[in-house]
Amino acid sequence: MQRKCLILSLTTKDDYALAEWRKNGVDTDLTLKDIPKALRLLRRFWIRWHLPLQSIWYGDWKKSFWQYDFVLVHGTWLAEDVPHWMKKIASQKGAFPKLVWWYWNTVVEKDHPDRVSQQDCEKWSFDQGDCKKYGMRHNTQYYFKSFQLPQVSLTTDVYFLGSDGGRMDTLLDLEKKWKAMGIRTDFHIVVKHISDAYKNRKAVTTKHFSYTENLEHIAASKAVLEILRPGQAGQTLRALECLFFGKKLITNDKSVMQQVYYHPDNIFVLGEDAEEKLSDFLEKPFFAENKKYCDYFDCKQWLERFWEENDGARK
């Protein structure tokens, strides 16, 4: 059944995921409209204190959202009043779209799901631990089969891009150890300011990469490194990127061994696999048969799972 779907996200107009959704026939918009920086502080104050007429800050979607069968809102405190407003307006229009409040990241206190009423929308997350803790429904992470890696030569063995997030020492220790093993690393640990402790470490940077740049680095590497933040759980985007692009994954997420796409030739689990065998792992061919799971994690099947009433994900 062809459903009319709308994805709302608190991001920028040129966000890579929103652009890819549109390529896949799904409408998107910014949850909160783009405004000058000078007004954003006022808007944050307005929303934090739940002042009246919050809809003045909403994107153009507010003019027609009730015409959709399905509307997904990315969960953040800046949008926590949106589902209630949508439910009220849709009811006035005699329309009843399926409204979903979605956590693409692990729940943090400021974005607590209890501040969004179960009467206004369904609450879902990719994180199974959060689903149990907060009584939410579960769906997987997703990716886009429509993405293509650029054609470039392999120049490195292991690539990492991400913020410090409490992982700095672990990442720097791994880089040092692997370089000593002759493994070529391409690490970019993004911080706001480079302290004296890290100013001579090339892996530490203040540069923010576009997603296009990120794909270029993935294409040039044999493997991608994933180090979960403290407290993080649930399937990650990096794991799906590696699956879709036929790249190897090195991760400290032991739960990945329970995923259907896990294969020891493709995924190296730190703390489980012998680290002295990492070089051998990098030289093995990617087990391409597991790419058959890409269909399941593609954005289109992911959307359909929100409608599978009897699926285990909804229990």
Description of the molecule:
The structure is a single chain. The chain has about 325 residues and is an alpha/beta fold. The protein folds into two domains: about 5-140 and about 300-305, Rossmann fold, CATH 3.40.50; about 155-295, Rossmann fold (3-Layer(aba) Sandwich), CATH 3.40.50. Helices cover about 25% and strands about 15% of the residues. The strands form two sheets. It has a six-stranded parallel beta sheet with strand order 2-1-3-4-5-6, with helices on both faces.
**Domains, number:** 2
Strand content range: 15-25%
* Shape designation: globular
SSE arrangement, N to C: EHEHEHEEHEEHEEHEHEEHHH
* Biggest beta sheet attributes: 6 strands, parallel
Helix content: 25-40%
The N- and C-terminal alpha carbons lie at a distance of 23 Å
Q: Describe the strand arrangement of the main beta sheet, using strand numbers.
A: 2-1-3-4-5-6
Q: Counting H and I runs of at least 4 residues, what is the number of helices?
A: 10
Low-confidence stretches: 310-315
